[in-house]
Design brief:
Elements (H helix, E strand, L loop, with lengths): L2 H14 L9 H10 L16 E2 H12 L8 H14 L3 E3 L14 E4 L1 H9 L5 H25 L2 E4 L5 E4 L5 H15 L4 E5 L8 E2 L1 H6 L13 E5 L4 E7 L8 H10 L6 E8 L2 H5 L9 E5 L6 E4 L10
Parallel strand pairs: 9-10, 10-11
Antiparallel strand pairs: 1-3, 2-3, 4-5, 6-7, 6-8, 8-9, 11-12
């Protein structure tokens, strides 16, 4: 079969599953063929369910279908095809490790079991009946996958006793330790005004409280991972979870100072690490006039503040 004919078949398949125009265009058809490992010379009945990272998927398409997607189109494939395949229960995100953070370069995708069955039956005598049954049961399948994702969410208790949920894995596990371990000790009475989560809409964003302090956040800017306001001292504590992105170094210090230049509260910069061993990897990068907290030594802070703290301890 020619490349063009196979792509046309894949587009028709996706349209039959009620995917919209963009999720049944050529790009999405090629993504389907890659996930199913269907080269032009293989039958639909021989479809597999290979696990592929986005970059591997693009390489497979280039090799077998001659479409050379440039590196800067990777986000388009991920955000405008793969995300919708996952939301529809057609593909699974990170089937090999559900705790992998959503911004990991090792994120991967695989056809779900029901999706692979549909692909293998495409064009067969029983395809029409299988399609009708699949479309009837699809809402339940989507709900099932959604419940599985919800079970894996990381619950976090805020200082005021309320709770939010973060996506699993990566720095969000450290963010949980910061909120529940750092904040009660080092920002007593503080209010968490912002928590960033790369895997979903930010679970905490008190734009009104930030605005009252002269801060208007640009969601497309390089925001810290957490923002805590300590009212009795009028401090705005800017916290970076340094398990994956690194600490507040000189460059980051300058970025944050610019972003929060209009703040009427005093700015405090904190880098948080899961351990002192992890901190040592970044020791030469940490900016002066900042603080460091390590989750495995939660009762102590390390001050990179020069002579400010010179003197005997009381």
């Amino acid at each position: 079969m020619s490349i063009e004919s196979r792509i046309a078949e894949a587009r028709a398949f996706l349209a039959a599953l009620n995917f919209d125009a963009e999720r049944s265009n050529e790009r999405s058809a090629l993504v389907l063929l890659a996930l199913a490992s269907l080269t032009p010379d293989r039958s639909w009945a021989s479809a597999e369910a290979q696990i592929l990272r986005t970059v591997e998927l693009m390489s497979w398409i280039r090799e077998h279908y001659g479409r050379d997607y440039k590196p800067n189109t990777r986000e388009t494939i991920r955000r405008r095809t793969l995300h919708q395949f996952v939301d529809a229960g057609f593909a699974a995100l990170n089937p090999d490790d559900s705790t992998r953070p959503v911004n990991s370069p090792r994120n991967c995708y695989q056809l779900t079991g029901p999706a692979r069955v549909m692909v293998r039956e495409y064009g067969s005598y029983g395809w029409g009946a299988s399609l009708a049954e699949y479309l009837v049961t699809l809402p339940g399948l989507v709900a099932q996958y959604e419940r599985a994702r919800e079970i894996e969410l990381v619950p976090v208790t805020l200082p005021d006793g309320s709770a939010v949920e973060l996506t699993p894995g990566g720095q969000n596990l450290l963010i949980k330790e910061i909120v529940e371990g750092f904040c009660p000790r080092w920002t007593p009475g503080g209010r968490v005004l912002y928590i960033g989560d790369a895997g979903r809409d930010d679970p905490v964003l008190d734009a009104a409280a930030l605005g009252a302090l002269g801060v208007v956040l640009n969601k497309h800017g390089k925001l810290p991972d957490l923002i805590v306001h300590v009212p009795d001292r009028n401090w705005l504590v800017l916290i970076e979870a340094a398990s994956s992105h690194g600490p507040v170094d000189a460059k980051r210090f300058g970025e944050l100072r610019t972003i929060f230049a209009e703040s009427t509260a005093g700015l405090v910069y904190v880098s948080c690490f899961p351990s002192r061993a992890e901190m040592r990897k970044h020791l030469t990068d940490i900016a002066w006039e900042t603080e460091v907290w390590c989750a495995d030594n939660a009762t102590h802070l390390i001050h990179f503040n020069g002579a400010r703290f010179l003197g005997p301890y009381e």
